[in-house]
Specification:
Blueprint lengths: L1 H6 L3 E7 L14 E4 L3 E7 L5 E3 L1 H21 L3 E4 L6 H23 L17 H7 L3 E12 L1 H12 L9 E9 L5 E9 L7 H11 L6
Parallel strand pairs: 2-5, 2-6, 3-6
Antiparallel strand pairs: 1-8, 3-4, 6-7, 7-8
Helix pairs in contact: 2-6
């Protein structure tokens, strides 16, 4: 019981929607969203507090994310083009840029950068048009998730620390998703996720994670 209490957690999402940027589909083509290969990593949180990446878990988590997002958008009448792991240097840089911009957006919700003046105005730049040309889509959905899982040794250490009224962090699930206008590179919607109880290792919990990630998606 004590271990359960020590490891219990909650889920928190925070959505930022650029209200002034409308969703505009091209009339000559179907509603199509490019789902960029999800930037996902699942890892173990060891007794010493170091995370060790697990390729097998990561592959499983990516598969669930791709499948669930495709199902959700398909139900909305949106055609989804799922990209493979990028090999083109430009697309690789776009993924890295999204990770950096997403981190900045989250920091801005805490620090309120004066240059933004309270406005949600973020972009991946005109280079995002390359995805539009390559995949013939109006928007791209980028997903970034880092998911760690507490090992048995770490759990025992957390329980011992809790008995001494010392808090140690267990596994965490953190990430964000962005909808990007491929005509302009503007991020028109962004949602961040933080959870100490989520999982991407099984279908049911992964579906919950995707539901939280897509909270407020204006499609």
């Amino acid at each position: 019981m004590g271990l359960c209490l020590a490891l219990a957690g909650c889920v928190h999402t925070n959505t930022n929607l650029a209200q002034h940027l409308d969703i505009n589909w091209s009339e000559a083509s179907p509603k199509r969203v490019v789902l960029v290969d999800p930037d996902v990593e699942l890892s173990e949180l060891t007794m010493s507090g170091i995370t060790e990446a697990r390729a097998d878990w990561t592959a499983t988590g990516k598969s669930f994310i791709r499948g669930d997002i495709t199902t959700v958008l398909g139900a909305k009448g949106v055609d989804v083009v799922v990209t493979d792991a990028p090999t083109d240097p430009h697309e690789v840089q776009l993924m890295k840029l999204h990770g950096a911009v997403g981190t900045s957006i989250i920091r801005n919700t805490l620090l309120k950068l004066p240059t933004k003046n309270g406005n949600f105005n973020w972009t991946l730049g005109p280079g995002a048009k390359a995805l539009r040309d390559h995949y013939n889509g109006d928007y791209a959905l980028f997903v970034y998730v880092r998911d760690s899982y507490t090992t048995a040794g770490r759990a025992v250490l957390m329980l011992a620390a809790a008995a001494l009224h010392v808090g140690l962090q267990g596994g965490q699930q953190a990430g964000f998703a962005s909808l990007v206008d491929l005509h302009t590179g503007q991020i028109v919607w962004f949602n961040s996720l933080n959870s100490s109880s989520g999982s991407l290792k099984n279908a049911k919990d992964a579906n919950t994670t995707v539901t939280n990630l897509l909270n407020g998606l204006p499609l």
